[in-house]
Amino acid sequence: MHSPQHLAVDSTGNVYSLGDEGSQSEDYPLLIKHSREGRAIAETLSTSNFSALPLKYAAVLGGDKGDANLFVKNDRVIVWIPLTEELFTFDLDLKLVSRVSLADAVRTMLIETSMTEIRFENLAVNSKDEVIVQVSLWSKDGRAPGLLKMARIGADGTFKDWIESRSGERMHRFLGLTSDDKNIFLESPGNQSVKAAVQ
Fold first, then answer.
1. I want to staple 178 with a disulfide (CB 3.0 to 4.6 A). Which of 60, 147, 155, 182 is the partner?
2. What is the distance between the alpha carbons of residues 183 and 120, in angstroms, rounded to a whole number?
3. What is the helix (H) or strand (E) element at residue 103, kind and residue range?
4. CA 49 to CA 143: how far, in whole Å?
């Protein structure tokens, strides 16, 4: 049975679920489209896409490099699989539009910061199909303090640039983008409240 771990909804109310079946013995779809009434009407992203991985099923949904992500943007269903460092884009009928590796961008970010480890905290896709990411970076040997940074990755999966926070401001948790591509951050001004800040 499909066990959803991430959900997204399109403008007509269809629901997309990314999840696993907890099985190690057979291939099955990770991504399922449901009608507004809850009926499965399309499926894709078979675990056979990840057959080279030692744990090819539930493990593809997350791991040391972060959690998988699923969202709908500009009538596209976008799935991030951190273990393989790949971004899948589907149309609303779950036909594959693109499969882009971000491995080159990951290498560049590690080299530019002199770090050895990376974790994707969150990501979003803007109207230019660029990937906006918040990443934690650190060194395995602990010689340098860890970093929390924002970056822009091109539609082809190559690193473009770092996105600097406002001068003197501490970086907060990245939540995503507004419809006009402004960054949304979760701020915690005190113990009793949180607020979203748009930059």
1. 182
2. 16
3. helix 103-113
4. 37
pTM of this structure: 0.87
CA proximity to 152, closest of 172, 138, 135, 171: 135
CATH 2.40.10 occupies which residues in the chain?
A: 1-101
pLDDT in tens, 74-125: 999 999 998 889 999 999 999 999 999 999 999 999 999 999 999 999 999 9
**Angular region, 75: left φ>0, alpha ψ -120 to 50, beta rest:** left
DSSP structure string for 38-66: S-EEEEEEEGGGGTTSSS-SGGGGEETTE
Amino acid at 143: R
What tens digit of pLDDT does each residue of 18-61 get?
988 766 656 788 899 999 999 999 999 988 877 666 554 555 66
